[in-house]
Amino acid sequence: RTLSDWLALRQQFPILSREVKGKPLVYFDNAATSQKPQVVIDALSHYYSYYNANIHRGIHTLAEEATMAYEATRDAVRDFVGAAEREEIIFTRGTTEAINLVAYTWGRKHISEGDEILISGMEHHSNIVPWQILCAEKGALLKVVPVEDDGSLSMSAFHELLSERTKLVSIVQVSNALGTVNPVKEIIDAAHRAGAKVLVDGAQSAVHLDIDVQDMDCDFFAFSGHKVYGPTGVGALYGKRELLESMPVFQGGGEMIKEVSFEGTTYADLPYKYEAGTPNIADTIALKAALDFISGIGKAQIRAHEDELLAYATAELKAIPGLKIIGEAAQKVSLVSFVVEGIHPQDIGVLLDNMGIAVRTGHHCTQPLMKRFGIPGTVRASFALYNEKTEIDVLIAALHKTIKMLT
Ligand code: PMP
């Protein structure tokens, strides 16, 4: 793809032509949520203006059209993560709900006193807290694989911590705070040999890396629609069929049943067993537009573009005196986290916003990781397919100004 191809893609994101504080918006907060292309916005508005209806139960035309569109997204997600069967895709509100679903259902059934759950020191709070709740309830132990100084996972510690007591390894594929890509295949392979199941938190990886749950052989995989150029409020959990079939139900209600009587209830088949109540129809439908948009470009192309931005940003940032990058693992994608000596990250964020630049500052929902590095937080610039080198130049110039003002 040429530069003009990327510019044409960028033009499909209407928000990117707005100004902030009188300056053209530079949006570098993509790891928090990505912007939406017009096709996604159109899919939402088309559903509400043309075929809004409740799904699965109606026999009228609108209900049928809405059901078809909703279920078409399930097929698109199956493709997107490389699952074998559409029944293995459960719609959730996002990664957080997907992880909680597993903790609540699989976890409640399979975790008991003395069992161990293994996570890492770079997990997002949403892959820590559900397991703490479960462990407290069951008298199980949460163990943590430490993070090395360069932001990579200590694989030797992982292999040491893994034992026959480990029932689950729940691991982030790409760190939202450092950009580190973890060797999930090696982790999954070792965990399986130890008899443990593995959940992969794909909230950050799904948009950058090719995901193939069959090749990875993970037991569960979770991601969020809003980080893959789709809407908020929808995401998915992939689970291996035999696991999903044997797990107890999550929420009870309409749609998840076969037959209800006061004597007892039988549950629906996969995937509906885990989708109680009227789901988020509009956002789920629009998620397909986002996934089609990504596959229309190709993840390899997107990754190459983002890698170029990352390399450029890393080199330029390193040339700034007093600036330190946190997380320089060999395997990284698309974001750079940094601190500047003597300046609080938040002060940098406020001044950058005054110049139209959106970055994230703070602990990035990874407080234990910040503690590990002995910092209150970082400034994080995260890149997407529509970002350009010239925007990094704007960031670098703004940082020079900011540091001058604050020191
Ligand atoms: N895990 C990681 C690595 C994340 O980056 C995020 C979102 N910041 C989540 C989980 C939670 O995702 P959501 O808030 O969309 O449920």
From TrEMBL:
Catalyzed chemical reaction(s): (sulfur carrier)-H + L-cysteine = (sulfur carrier)-SH + L-alanine
EC number(s) stated in the UniProt entry for this protein: 2.8.1.7
Source organism of the structure: Pedobacter frigoris
Alphabetized UniProt keyword annotations: Pyridoxal phosphate, Transferase
GO molecular function term, any single one: cysteine desulfurase activity
Phylogenetic lineage: Bacteria, Pseudomonadati, Bacteroidota, Sphingobacteriia, Sphingobacteriales
GO biological processes: cysteine metabolic process
Protein name: Cysteine desulfurase
PANTHER family tied to this protein: CYSTEINE DESULFURASE, CYSTEINE DESULFURASE 1, CHLOROPLASTIC
Top-level class of the enzyme under EC nomenclature: transferase
Domain Aminotransferase class V: 26-395
Family membership: Belongs to the class-V pyridoxal-phosphate-dependent aminotransferase family. Csd subfamily.
Cited function: Catalyzes the removal of elemental sulfur and selenium atoms from L-cysteine, L-cystine, L-selenocysteine, and L-selenocystine to produce L-alanine.
Cofactor entry: pyridoxal 5'-phosphate
Gene3D superfamilies: Aspartate Aminotransferase, domain 1, Type I PLP-dependent aspartate aminotransferase-like (Major domain)
Domain of life: Bacteria
SUPFAM superfamilies: PLP-dependent transferases (SSF53383)
